[in-house]
Amino acid sequence: ETVLTQSPATLSVSPGERVTLSCRASQSVSSYLAWYQQRPGQAPRLLISDASTRATGIPPRFSGSGSGTEFTLTISGLQSEDFGVYYCQQYKNWPPYTFGQGTKLEIK
Amino acid sequence: EVELVESGGGLVQPGGSLRLSCAASGFIFSSDWMTWVRQAPGKGLEWVAHIKPDGSGANYLDSVKGRFTISRDNAKNSLFLQMNSMRVEDSAVYYCAKEACYGSGSCFHSWGQGTLVTVSS
């Protein structure tokens, strides 16, 4: 099973700042990595697929990069609606599909 | 617009059974892999099972193999999860999701709002 480790666990930031979230895979997943946002009380929402492709309707302040075992999600110019928990998910080595444990983005 | 609506959650005793349903609309249901993902209270996301578009094959998380069965009715645009021999650790919000990406595998493009399952005596 491919384990995904996200860091940091929690990030406290102010609106307008730029943040970078990390996701590390225990073995190569090539570029088969997705990022999701989950706001409190809501279902997850797909942000990025194939490591760097924004999903339909996702604003350009969200960008993804990486391949192999190291990936990042960058959010430029944080807005209030961006706070929540972010998960990475790999779809190279399955079953099972696996998720990271999440990074919680909090308002400072 | 894709819409997924789960139902069937509730309180069940350990060892009991529950059947979840997911009603799909807004896309050609019979063309897509479908998945169940769960989230224990205050925890992260965990993929549970998925099923081929024609229902001819499925894969499961090891901890639910032999206890859970995923199925679908393409004529009724519906996805199901039959959960038997349930354990306390199966307690979670269960989401159905439409798969996409379809590279080596799938990401989860659209999600329902979830249905809460609680296993407790």
Q: Element order, helices and strands of chain B?
A: EEEEEEEEEEE
Number of contiguous helices of chain A: 0
Which overall shape of chain A is indicated by the principal axes computed on the Cα atoms? globular
Please give the largest β-sheet of chain B: 7 strands, mixed
Which secondary-structure class do the elements of chain A indicate? Answer: mainly beta
Rg of chain B over CA atoms, rounded to whole Å, is 14 Å
Total count of helical runs of at least 4 residues of chain B? 0
> Which band does the percent of strand residues of chain B land in?
over 45%
Q: Which word captures the global form of chain B?
A: globular
The chain-level mean pLDDT of chain A equals 96
Strand coverage percent of chain A: over 45%
Strand tally of chain B, please? Answer: 11
- Structural class call of chain B reads mainly beta
The major pleated sheet of chain A works out as: 7 strands, mixed
Distance between the termini of chain B: 40 Å
Element order of chain A: H for helix, E for strand: EEEEEEEEEEE
Give an overview in words.
- The complex is a heterodimer of chains A (108) and B (121).
- Chain A is mainly β and 108 residues long.
- Helices cover 0% and strands 50% of the residues of chain A.
- Chain A is built from no helices and eleven strands.
- In chain A, the strands form two sheets. In chain A, strands 2, 4, 5, 6, 9, 10 and 11 form a seven-stranded mixed β-sheet that branches. Chain A has a four-stranded antiparallel β-sheet with strand order 1-3-8-7, with no helix packed on it.
- The mean pLDDT of chain A is 96.
- Chain B has strands at 3-7, 10-12, 18-25, 34-39, 45-51, 58-60, 68-73, 78-83, 92-100, 107-111, 115-119.
- With 121 residues, chain B is mainly β.
- In chain B, the strands form two sheets. In chain B, strands 2, 4, 5, 6, 9, 10 and 11 form a seven-stranded mixed β-sheet that branches. A four-stranded antiparallel β-sheet of chain B has the order 1-3-8-7, with no helix packed on it.
- Chain B is 0% helix and 52% strand.
- The mean pLDDT of chain B is 97.
- Classes of the chains: A mainly beta (108), B mainly beta (121).
- At the A-B interface, strand 4, strand 5 and strand 10 of A face strand 5 and strand 10 of B.
